[in-house]
Amino acid sequence: MYIYETLTEAVEDLGQRGYEYDFNLGEEFIECKALDLKLMPEEFEIEEFYRFEGMNDPADSAVVYAISSPVGNLKGVLIDAYGAYAENISPELLGKLKIHHD
After folding, report:
1. Which helix (H) or strand (E) holds 25?
2. Whose CA, among 18, 37, 46, 102, lies 20 to 30 Å from 76?
3. CB contact at 8 A, 40 and 29
4. DSSP 45-60
5. pLDDT band with cut points at 50, 70 and 90 for residue 60
6. What's residue 87's pLDDT?
7. CA distances from 46 to 36, 58, 59 (A)
8. What is the DSSP secondary-structure string of 58-76?
9. Cβ contacts of 38 within 8 Å, gap of 6 or more
10. Given CA atoms 94, 48, 80, 22 in this order, what sign does their dihedral have?
């Protein structure tokens, strides 16, 4: 695993290492809007993750996930605020992210 000082540094380096797509959370899937593609929890793997703590405000805390999928042979990044997703996503997706979050 790499060590990054900032979220921006992590995203830039992951991009240089081939994690070129941006993913967003849906209720039951992650989505790559650039490709109009939705991936269910069983269709992707979390290869790396990095936590960032807000120095002055806990609301600034986030996790960066480096994600790969055999569907389309994709690699991308998902950025999520701590706990922000807990109420809005399926138990399956929450479970997949939580394994790497705790």
Report:
1. strand 21-25
2. 102
3. yes
4. EEEEEEEE--SS-GGG
5. low
6. 58
7. 20, 24, 23
8. GGG-EEEEEEEETGGGEEE
9. 26, 29, 30, 31, 32
10. negative
Q: Which residues pair with 10 in a beta bridge?
A: none
The owner of tokens 């600034």 is 60
Assigned token pair, 18: 């081939």
Token pair of 10 as six digits: 């992590």
Rounded to whole angstroms, how far apart are CA atoms 73 and 88?
A: 27
Q: Which two tokens stand for residue 21?
A: 């797509």
Structure tokens of 55?
A: 């120095």
Please report, as a single letter, which amino acid is at residue 59. A
Residue 8, both tokens? 């921006």
pTM equals: 0.85
Residues 14-51: pLDDT tens digits? 999 999 999 999 889 999 999 999 999 999 999 999 98
